[in-house]
Amino acid sequence: MGIRKKAKNIGEIAEGKAKETIAKAVGNESLERKGKVEKTKGKVKQAVEKGKDRFRH
Questions:
Q1: Which one-letter DSSP state was computed for residue 27?
Q2: Does residue 6 register a pLDDT over 90?
Q3: Terminal Cα distance for the chain, rounded
Q4: 8 against 54, higher pLDDT
Q5: I want to staple 12 with a disulfide (CB 3.0 to 4.6 A). Which of 4, 37, 42, 56 is the partner?
Q6: CA pair distance 7, 12, nearest whole angstrom
């Protein structure tokens, strides 16, 4: 996996987690859902990239 894609995916996971945490503190359910979706999306992308790496070697 390219370091650039890995960093981007990790950033997306962190951003989603931050949104989720802030939304819980404020009580904003919509933002909390968006944070969860963003975090999950980053994790899925990360898993796909790891799968690609396994087939390359």
A1: T
A2: no
A3: 11
A4: 8
A5: 42
A6: 9
| Side chain identity at residue 16, one-letter code | G
DSSP state letters, 32-54 = HHHHHHHHHHHHHHHHHHHHHHH
Model pLDDT, residue 24: 96
* Cα separation values, 17 from 9, 32, 36, 49, Å: 12, 9, 7, 20
HSE at residue 47, side-chain half, CA atoms within 13 A, is: 6
Structure tokens at 50: 């790891």
For 21-50, write each residue's pLDDT tens digit: 999 999 999 999 999 999 999 999 999 988
Q: Please say whether the dihedral angle defined by the alpha carbons of residues 32, 37, 6 and 46, taken in this order, is positive or negative.
A: positive
